[in-house]
Amino acid sequence: MANMPPKLSDSQRLAASDKAVQSRRERADVKERLKSGSLGIFDVINDPRESIQRMRVRELLDAAPGVGVRRAFSIMSRANISKTRRIGGLGINQLQNLRNEMLLNKVAITRGALIVMSGPGGVGKSTITSFLREHPSLWVSLSATTREPRENEKDGRDYLFITDEKFDQMIAGEEFLEWAEFAGARYGTPKRAVEQARELGRHVLLEIEIAGARQIRKSDPAALLVFISPPSWEQLVERLTARGTDSAERRAARLALAEEEMACSGEFDEVLINHRVEEVASALLSLATSRAK
Ligand code: 5GP
């Protein structure tokens, strides 16, 4: 009896069948869009909906122009992907193999967009990044820094906390996409991880200060630069001066810096006002999606 399906009430059965119909519809829609070329293979792979993540890789490839039923199996076997594998179960090596196979077969694949987010201290950038960190189609880059971890900060989650020597080595090895000094410490974006995520179609978000944003503007003119602005200057002052532990000089320095940072908003492609974290996060996601096409 242990393997019998659970007994469902009528309403549970109805809900389950509604969900199944909805999933089939979502999958059919995605396959249609793949066929017409309005979606690429990696757009589908990065689609977080459960119905899509549960779709078989074979179905995805069958529907992709330039692949089709005939080539799907040979591509999967060369990419080391079993016939029954679902999209959500693909590992990083398999994704990379799949990307290489697509390139060999001259199937167009979309690279993820690069989104740079800057703004004055105290505007809530790190709350926005934490909010977006869980999102499957966007990868939040992990910076390296020479500053000391704050309480509650974890190495490998908030930053890679590294020594000055290691930072020097990384500069010498050209391992940074950009780096800058800020408030007595150095911060940099490791290049390889950003490249890897973008190649697999994921959008990448950098949360960096303005000098770094300027470097990205130069090295990658297609990157989208977004400035996060407070609802009002008064609200920013309130947030910046709220830390009771700061000395008067420290508070004044933080305000002066914020004023300088606010004056740079005109250099950015978009300015988003941080009324609510959820709103800013969803605006960033739609900007990324429209940029990647
Ligand atoms: P905090 O020390 O408060 O975490 O960050 C200080 C500033 O450094 C913030 O404005 C943050 O956006 C910026 N920052 C963090 N990581 C990087 C990075 O990799 N490159 C640059 N240029 N700035 C960064």
List keywords for this structure.
4-stranded mixed sheet, single chain, Rossmann fold, alpha/beta, binds guanosine-5'-monophosphate, 293 residues, 49% helix, Helicase, Ruva Protein, domain 3
Question: What order do the helices and strands come in, and which of them pair?
Answer:
Layout: H1 10-36, H2 41-45, H3 50-53, H4 57-63, H5 68-78, H6 92-104, E1 114-118, H7 125-132, E2 138-140, E3 144-145, E4 160-161, H8 164-172, E5 176-182, E6 185-190, H9 191-199, E7 203-207, H10 210-219, E8 224-229, H11 233-241, H12 248-262, E9 270-273, H13 277-292
This protein binds guanosine-5'-monophosphate.
- Cofactors, ions, other ligands: guanosine-5'-monophosphate
The residue-averaged pLDDT reads: 92
Q: How many runs of DSSP E, i.e. beta strands?
A: 9
Q: What is the 3D form? A: globular
Class computed from helices, strands and strand pairing: alpha/beta
Number of separate structural domains: 2
CATH fold annotation of the largest domain: Rossmann fold
Largest sheet: 5 strands, parallel
CATH class of the largest domain: Alpha Beta
Percent of sequence in beta strands:
5-15%
